[in-house]
Every structure is written in structure tokens, then in C-alpha cells.
Amino acid sequence: MLHRLTNLSLAAAIAMAGGCAATSDSAKPDTGLTPSYSLTNTYWKLTELDGAPVTMAPQQEREVRITLTDDGKVHGFTGCNQVMGGYTLAGTALRFTQLAGTRMACPPPLMQLESTVLANLNSVTGYRFDGEYLILLKDGSPVARFESVYL
Fold first, then answer.
1. Mean pLDDT, the chain, as a whole number?
2. What confidence tens digit (pLDDT) does each residue in 57-88 have?
3. Secondary structure class of 139 (helix, strand, coil)
4. Is residue 14 very low, low, confident or very high in pLDDT (cuts 50, 70, 90)?
5. What is the pTM assigned to this prediction?
6. Under DSSP, is residue 147 helix (H, G, I), strand (E, B) or coil?
7. With pLDDT > 90 as the criterion, what percentage of the chain qualifies?
8. Contact 88, 97 (CB under 8 A)
9. Residues near 65 by Cβ (< 8 Å), separated by ≥ 6?
10. Do 145 and 127 meet the contact criterion of CB atoms below 8 Å apart?
């Protein structure tokens, strides 16, 4: 009986060691937390504008954000009003077109934020990703940084 238990323990140890040896260092468990952002169909929250951090003002209704859809449309919020329009995409070249918005009046700081957001969106000529951030570019220089938000 003792001999059988020793063999069983030895067999278990060999099986465990073999299982460890077969596991690649690069193999990662699937946690279901793999980023799933893409340029389109992602909620992009503005975090930086012209190199300065963007935070919500106390009187601000919601965060500045955009979402680009697969059918060439963009919609979002500019700090004061809703924005909608279109975009064209060719590789990493990106241009926003026919941007329009609601016309609600807001406190001066929010109107200034909205004006800057719209001016920057209208100036965009390209984009790149930096991890889970979308960097909007004007002639290769960053004008806005958005973070992907998982809903």
C-alpha cells in the first residue's frame, strides 16, 4: 500500500511538472478584460485639449465626448450642446465634416470650451492611438486626447 501511494505521489508530481513545462511564458489567461476599443463605436471622453487637461466644470451637464459610427457619422457633447455631423477616413487621415449642434446658451466658461472643442474638431487631419487613448491630430500635432470609456 505504501509503495502504491509513493507511485501515485510521484505520478502526480510528474504530471504537474509536465503541465507547467508545457505552459508558455507568453500565454495569458483570458480574463475577458481585453480592450475592445476601436475608432468607431467607442465612447471617447475628452481628457486633454490643446495640451491642457480637461475636467468637468461644476455647472457642466456631462463630459465632453464623441462617438464615431461605422456609417460615417459622429455625435457627441461639446460641454454645452450636442454635436453631430460626419467624418471621412482614409487610413489614419481623419476629417470631420458638416458639424452642427444644438444652440443652447451656457455659462461663458462652457461656451468657451465648446468653441475650442469645435474649432479643434474642425481642424483635425488625422489620428493615432496611444494605448486606450485616441489622439486627434492637426498636421501631425496633437490637438485633443480622448479616453475610451466602457459602458
1. 83
2. 888 889 999 999 999 999 999 999 999 999 99
3. coil
4. very low
5. 0.76
6. strand
7. 70
8. yes
9. 43, 44, 45, 46, 76, 77, 146, 149
10. no
Query: Residue 146 burial (CB < 10 Å; 0-12/13-18/19+)?
Result: buried
d(C-alpha 127, C-alpha 90), whole Å: 11
Q: Which amino acid is at 134?
A: L
Range list of H helices, the chain: 2-22, 108-123
Residue 26 C-alpha cell reads as 507568453
* Burial class of residue 105 in the structure, from the number of CB atoms within 10 Å of its CB (0-12 exposed, 13-18 middle, 19+ buried): exposed
Beta strands (DSSP E) in the chain are 43-49, 52-53, 65-68, 73-77, 82-90, 93-101, 126-130, 133-138, 141-149
Question: Rounded to an integer, what distance in angstroms lies between the CA atom of residue 108 and that of residue 120?
Answer: 18
